[in-house]
Design goal:
54% of the residues lie in helices and 9% in strands. Helix 12 packs antiparallel against helix 13, helix 14 runs antiparallel to helix 15 and helix 16 packs across helix 18. About 3% of the residues have low confidence. The protein is built from 21 helices and nine strands. It has 406 residues and is an alpha+beta fold. Strand 4 and strand 5 form a beta hairpin. The longest helix has 26 residues. It binds adenosine-5'-triphosphate. The site of adenosine-5'-triphosphate has 11 residues, from helix 7. It comes from Syntrophotalea carbinolica (strain DSM 2380 / NBRC 103641 / GraBd1) (Pelobacter carbinolicus).
Length: 406
């Protein structure tokens, strides 16, 4: 249908980038990027008129998103034709604008496009050797100034290398090292670096990419003390295990796995050093709190749990709950990953599986019907009720009522 709208408007339309790369690698990818030679927004609007979907246009970037009834989205971008195609241009300059659009991309493997217009449907455009590099498992930039033009590509190169099991070409590594040496990383804003790190931490196993960032000097650029050299292979593996375990539990609450890995990366740094990183990356306020006060609390509590496990302290469930209830789940999973005490790990996992979502059954109106006037006493009663429930002293609603009246 996309090609048909292109035909009707007399515009060439292509599917490009990661979708085509993953198609050729036979990997799943639901991010469809379309490039239209000409006005992408007008194209998207025409498409929406015919096929009943919504359009969100970004005039500033000449891009649009098609949003289908089931939530599926397709990104549409414009390859501007006006500069490159003379009126009555010769057939040899046909597709000049898509070629230029593809030339602006990061790596050869991301420059492949497939034509969608009727007569050309399914034709693969490969101007920069993308297929060859897919076969040779190589990440290569398109020109010598690529990393200088956009230093975030250094992070992207490492992410693709590790995700796909590819390697940067020799010249590309050389260009990356020169760009690091010449300080080009300083040109990227904090939030962009932060975004790239989060993307790496969202990959299924971020450790190899972290090692590569370290080896190529990208971690040290974020902060001189930042390194994975001190981390045993086990730490990230344990974090991955904890996150995978949590996701299998289906508690209904998703965890942001990147935060667990990020905490592991910061595990040897003190409060001041982490604060410098938070500032450098200009993290948003809720992340600032997470890597600040919440991380500090998690470290303190983990120490307590470890210490008490070493004393073979006999926990009541209400003690565990009181200690851990205010920590975000990501900090709990980090604790499970980082601790070397099996007993401490079990305590945290017990809290997550059995205690975290325990609630007492009585509500405010129940207390009111017992003749208790609302006030701070309610909080105290609910806390006490929760403790006795956690410790198995009350089970039913009647038990709770009995407990309150006593
Ligand atoms: P992913 O599977 O991680 O989403 P992707 O290749 O789809 O990978 P996106 O970040 O969604 O990556 O980008 C879509 C396309 O835009 C890429 O395939 C690439 O061609 C291009 N692109 C993205 N970022 C850059 C950049 N910094 N410089 C040049 N081209 C880029």
């Amino acid at each position: 249908t996309i090609g048909a709208v292109g035909d009707a408007l007399g515009r060439s339309v292509f599917v490009v980038g990661g979708f085509v790369r993953d198609l050729l690698l036979r990997q799943e990818n639901f991010d469809v990027d379309i490039v239209v030679e000409g006005d992408g927004i007008a194209f998207a609007e025409e498409y929406a008129r015919r096929y009943d979907c919504r359009v969100r246009a970004h005039k500033k970037f000449a891009t649009a998103v098609l949003i289908f009834a089931d939530g599926f989205k397709v990104d549409v971008a414009s390859a501007r034709t006006e500069y490159y195609l003379e009126p009555g241009a010769l057939p040899t300059v046909e597709n000049a604008s898509i070629k230029l659009d593809l030339y602006r991309r990061d790596f050869t493997i991301n420059t492949l496009a497939i034509a969608l217009n009727g007569p050309h449907f399914g034709e693969l455009l490969d101007y920069f050797g993308g297929q060859n590099d897919l076969r040779g498992k190589a990440i290569r930039v398109l020109h010598n100034l690529s990393f200088v033009e956009d230093p975030t590509r250094m992070f992207r190169a490492i992410r693709f290398e590790q995700r796909l099991g590819f390697q940067m070409g020799r010249h590309t590594v050389h260009l990356l090292k020169s760009a690091v040496r010449m300080g080009f990383l300083d040109k990227i804003s904090g939030p962009r670096v932060f975004n790239e790190l989060v993307l790496i931490f969202r990959e299924s196993d971020p450790l190899p990419a972290m090692r590569r960032l370290d080896e190529l000097g990208l971690l040290a650029f974020i902060h001189p003390t930042l390194s994975v050299r001190h981390l045993s292979d086990g730490t990230f593996a344990a974090a991955k295990q904890a996150v995978d375990w949590y996701e299998l539990l289906y508690t209904g609450e998703r965890c942001q796995r990147w935060k667990v890995f990020f905490l592991c990366l910061l595990s040897d740094l003190d409060h001041g050093e982490v604060q410098q990183i938070v500032q450098r990356l200009a993290m948003p306020p809720q992340c600032e709190e997470f890597f600040g006060s919440e991380r500090d609390a998690a470290t303190r509590i983990l120490n307590q749990i470890e210490w008490r496990s070493m004393q073979s302290y006999r926990w009541r469930d209400s003690d565990i709950h009181a200690l851990l209830k205010d920590l975000p789940v990501e900090a709990l999973l980090y604790g499970m990953a980082i601790t070397e005490h099996e007993e401490a790990r079990r305590t945290i996992s017990h809290f997550i599986t059995h205690l975290r979502h325990v609630k007492c059954l009585l509500r405010g109106h129940d207390l009111q019907s017992l003749g208790l006037a609302p006030g701070p006493i309610y909080r105290e009663i609910f806390d006490a009720l929760l403790d006795v429930r956690l410790d198995g002293q009350v089970v039913t609603r009647e038990d709770e009522l009995q407990f309150v009246t006593n």
